[in-house]
Design brief:
Layout lengths: L7 H7 L3 H10 L27 E5 L11 H9 L4 E3 L1 E4 L5 E3 L22 E5 L2 E5 L7 H4 L13 H4 L10 H15 L4 E2 L2 E2 L2 H6 L5 H10 L10 E4 L3 H9 L3 E5 L9 H6 L5 H5 L1 H7 L5 E3 L20 H7 L3 E2 L28 H9 L5 E4 L2 H8 L6
Parallel strand pairs: 1-2, 1-13, 2-7, 3-8, 9-10, 10-11, 11-12
Antiparallel strand pairs: 3-4, 5-6
Helix pairs in contact: 2-3, 3-6
Family: Belongs to the glycerophosphoryl diester phosphodiesterase family.
Catalytic activity: a sn-glycero-3-phosphodiester + H2O = an alcohol + sn-glycerol 3-phosphate + H(+)
Protein name: glycerophosphodiester phosphodiesterase
Amino acid sequence: MVVLAIDLKAILKMATTFRAWLLLSAVGTLTLVSSAPAAIHTTKVKSSVDKCKPLVIAHRGASGYVPEHTLGAYALAITMGADYVEPDLVMTRDGHLVARHDNELGLTTDVATHPEFSDRFKTKTIDGHEMTGWFTEDFTLAEIKTLRAIERIPETRPGNARMNGIFQIPTFQEIINLVKSLEISQQRPIGLYPEIKHSTYFQGLNLPMEDLLVETFRKNGYIGSSAPVYIQSFEVNNLKYLKTITDLKLLQLYESNPSDQPFDQVVAETGLTYADMAMPDGLKEVAKYAAAVGPDKSYIIPRNQDNTLGEPTSFVQDAHAAGLKVHPYTFRAENTFLPTEFRSKDPSKAAIGDLYGELRAFIATGIDGLFSDQPDKAVAIRGNCMHS
């Protein structure tokens, strides 16, 4: 077995905050397996994790406590009791899957402090939107590994920002290795919930992710609908293609603006919108290729003009009638993300409100799972869930 070396200097820096200490206690006693081929186990993975309700999906890891999409964020989420960890996946120039919310690196890494990469600063059009920065598809994995993660929203999460510069950008294989290691110490199954980012864009660069993702899962023993896996996307055609090559569970994501179109549908000029897909007939069409839907929370309980929660819609019932599970996103504890009635009186951006109140309102609608940046709070309100 190949053992992943842990940087002692990084660990000591991590221990400067209580939350990082929790992470250290979780990771420091583990034998982490590296991404070397010898470490891949092909034994078929099955689990009863999906018997928990609602499922708790750690959104980008425990990203409310540790910079998102880092091994630290995923490890902490698992020790907090999350059923699944969610890595967003993008591609490197040399064809490796790495975890970043977007292929633009400037918001979540220290790439701007690397003068050797100044010539990679570019303006591109991604899914119809112009973006300027540094992009994963212009870097090899070896170059990506010289970068370090930083907090995306430091004004809202200053505690996370104190851990800037500690963590590398992980590959998908490294995340799988971490999950398998923690399954041993936690003595329970832990699911993987990757999102394919910008599928049409990467296909246009001859860097498609779909087959590589399925093959990576296969090599690690994740095969069939009983595996603790969901593959998610905001696009449609890549999910339909995945349905033809794998029995792993698929989830159709819905953008927050129902009038938007999945980008592949924009390219194909079909006119299909997320609003169409949220109607009863639209959900029945989604059920032909997906096992679940991941709507923005507003599809389930919209907000009133004063930012309080409104009345629940029929979305959950309609999805269930179509045979679909419902996993809405994203539940966050900071005031800036909460409905007005659940905000604390502290006016600061970093102030924590009553996430429990919002969670109770949505759980009452019958949702089957939820994405949260603070998975410990969702686990606490759900109560114990025994995994056989």
